[in-house]
Amino acid sequence: MKKEYYLVHKAILPDCIDQVIEARTLLENHEVSSVKEAVTKVGISRNTYYKYKDYVFEKDTQNTSRQAVLTLILKDEKGSLASVIQTLSEIHTSILTISQALPVARKANVLITLDITHMNATIEELTSALKTLSCVRSVHLDAIE
């Protein structure tokens, strides 16, 4: 199974990574009002910011919970969502939010935010388990922290 994530020391990463995280923090804390202002303040290009912003995260030592956001496309059939929830429960995740759009073309789009702090599997194993369900057409990991 191919692993998509690594834990690496920042010494081997490009110097701009710290600045990308700093720019994102400025935006999240509303210290600046735009990406342009944030990147100017930290000294990187907008291109560099957008290239890395969704892929690098600072380790949060004070927050002990981990979260993941998944988008699923389910077949529009009775019990589909229940099967997904059962699988998530078996892997010891907790659902924080769940949103299902109205089915279109016999497919339902579902967005789920999970607390994966106590999960007894890797994120790859979680997505693989969901993909094995006959009601699941696709699974996409949108974010993890």
Can you walk me through this structure?
This protein has 5 helices and 4 strands. A hairpin with a 6-residue loop joins strand 2 and strand 3. Helix 1 packs across helix 2.
Number of helices: 5
CATH architecture of the largest domain: 2-Layer Sandwich
Largest sheet: number of strands, sense, barrel closure? 4 strands, antiparallel
Low-confidence stretches: none
What is the CATH level 1 assignment of the largest domain? Answer: Alpha Beta
Element-level helix/strand string: HHHEHEEHE
Number of strands: 4
Tally of distinct domains: 2
**CATH fold call of the largest domain:** Alpha-Beta Plaits
- Separation of the first and last Cα atoms: 21 Å
- The average pLDDT value, as a whole number, equals 90
Broad shape: elongated
Brief summary:
By secondary structure, the protein is of the alpha+beta class.
How does the SSE layout of this entry go?
Elements lengths: L15 H13 L6 H8 L3 H7 L14 E9 L4 H11 L3 E7 L6 E9 L7 H9 L4 E9 L1
Antiparallel strand pairs: 1-3, 1-4, 2-3
Structural features:
2 domains; 5 helices; Alpha-Beta Plaits; elongated
